[in-house]
Amino acid sequence: MPADPGRPRPRRILLKLSGEALMGPDSFGYHADTLAGFVDQIREVLGLGVQVGIVVGGGNLFRGATGALSGMNRATADSMGMLATVMNALALKDALIQAGVDTRVQTAVAITHVGTAFERDTAVRDLEAGRVIIFGGGTGNPFFTTDTAAALRAAEIDADLLLKATKVDGVYTADPKKDPGAQRYATLRFDEAIEKNLGVLDTAAFALCREQNLSLVVFNVFKPGALKRVVLGEDEGTRVTLN
Is 234 part of any domain? Predict the structure, then answer.
């Protein structure tokens, strides 16, 4: 479907990649071909002149909530999850650099010789210079998800669009794997998504997006070219907006 001519192309985006996405078809760790596919999609968007920031999760290595359920202190478990996101940030950085994409890692937790501490002005300067910035370490605080970290970083760097990469084509009226009659929403309002409890983002991330009038697109990152189609404003995924 052609792009919506009334929708301007974003100047700067924040892409939220889950740790699970990095596994591809595997059950743990990283899948090389999947990483390469993500890199290709990021390069396509950079070729459009769009600035790209990325927040990556850590679920392929460790999930803080799971650790807490097993009896570990929640703050300790979340701290371990933050470290997992830094490992993923480094893995994605390496894949991008090997593909010729200038990339930096900023972290919300202090780890010397791995990445620089998050600093908004430095991140913006690097983005404007054409570099990809990967934000690791979540928010740097326990009890907050990487969805919230993505919304926070998107607001801080003045992103025009927050993109949540998933394994489904957007937000549906029901689970499409269980209900063959489930319909995809092309667009949603934040209030509508919250009222229907569609589980697009956690409550804190939703509240921040709504407060900052930050549009969100949920899309299937495993579809080749999907990221570019979202950026071009085509009918890809589900767009969630304030109005």
Answer: yes
- Within a domain: residue 4? no
DSSP-assigned states of every residue in 40-79: HHHHHHHTTT-EEEEEE--TTT--HHHHHHTT--HHHHHH
Mean pLDDT calculated for residue range 56-68? 85
DSSP-assigned states of every residue in 102-156: -EEEEESS--TTT-EEP-HHHHHHHHHTT-EEEEESTTSSTT--HHHHHHHHHHH
Q: Mean pLDDT over residues 31-54, rounded?
A: 97
The whole-angstrom separation of Cα 228 and Cα 226 is 5
Cβ atoms of residues 104 and 131 within 8 Å: yes
Within a domain: 27: yes
On whether the pTM is more than 0.85, the answer is: yes
Residues 139-148 pLDDT 10s: 999 999 999 9
Of 69 and 136, more confident: 136
Which CATH number do you get for residue 200? Answer: 3.40.1160.10
Confidence band of 160 (pLDDT split at 50, 70, 90): very high
Q: How many residues does the chain have?
A: 243
In a domain, 111, yes or no: yes
Indicate the number of domains in the chain. Answer: 1
Range of the domain at 75: 12-241
| CA dist list (Å): 109 to 9, 63, 79, 163, 220 | 33, 17, 9, 23, 29
